[in-house]
């Protein structure tokens, strides 16, 4: 993970080099956690984990449901709006060297819907927004992290890591 062996703690990076410049070839190359693309495992481990996930889904009789966040579950804007609007969450996120205000309205009944549907599906959420944005919205929708856990995708995970 981030040029360090998660098994033994060995530093795999060549000194004074860029991330990814490794001293030796490693077998870990498959990212397994949406929100932590730097955490990679070997192809063999990925197959074993995938098989275990498949068996778990069959046993629990739950398929995966990947839901788009924006315009489906929530509506977010960074336009100036009154701070006292009912049912609107206001938060700030960094944008370059400044902080921008965002305003999010949840679709009516969405929390109850997610609670009910989570009994039938393993829930994942995704957006073309950045990682910090989607994790902020996930905490609004699921403060206990019982619905989505780590199953959160953003545009940061939709492109190969540099």
UniProtKB/TrEMBL annotation:
Q: Which residues belong to any copy of the FCP1 homology domain?
A: 58-162
The record's top EC class is hydrolase
Print the keywords alphabetically: Hydrolase, Nucleus
Keyword Hydrolase on entry: yes
Q: What is its EC number?
A: 3.1.3.16
User: Sorted alphabetically, which InterPro entries does this protein's record hold?
Assistant: Fcp1, FCP1_dom, HAD-like_sf, HAD_sf
Q: Do the record's keywords include Hydrolase?
A: yes
According to the UniProt entry, its GO molecular function terms are:
RNA polymerase II CTD heptapeptide repeat phosphatase activity
Stored CDD domains:
HAD_FCP1-like (cd07521)
Domain of life, per the record? Eukaryota
**Matches recorded under PANTHER family:** RNA POLYMERASE II CTD PHOSPHATASE (PTHR23081), RNA POLYMERASE II SUBUNIT A C-TERMINAL DOMAIN PHOSPHATASE (PTHR23081:SF36)
- The protein here is known as protein-serine/threonine phosphatase
Source species, please?
A: Dreissena polymorpha (Zebra mussel)
């Amino acid at each position: 993970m981030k040029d360090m062996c998660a098994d033994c703690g060995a530093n795999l990076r060549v000194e004074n080099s860029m991330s990814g410049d490794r001293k030796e070839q490693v077998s870990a190359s498959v990212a397994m956690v949406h929100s932590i693309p730097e955490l990679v495992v070997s192809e063999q481990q990925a197959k074993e984990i995938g098989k275990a996930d498949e068996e778990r889904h069959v046993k629990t009789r739950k398929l995966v449901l990947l839901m788009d966040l924006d315009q489906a579950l929530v509506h977010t804007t960074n336009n100036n709006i009154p701070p006292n609007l009912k049912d609107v969450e206001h938060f700030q996120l960094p944008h370059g060297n400044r902080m921008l205000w965002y305003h999010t309205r949840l679709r009516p009944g969405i929390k109850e819907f997610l609670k009910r549907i989570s009994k039938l599906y393993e829930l994942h959420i995704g957006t073309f927004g950045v990682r910090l944005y989607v994790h902020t919205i996930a905490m609004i929708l699921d403060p206990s992290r019982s619905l989505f856990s780590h199953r959160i995708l953003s545009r940061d995970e939709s492109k190969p890591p540099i």
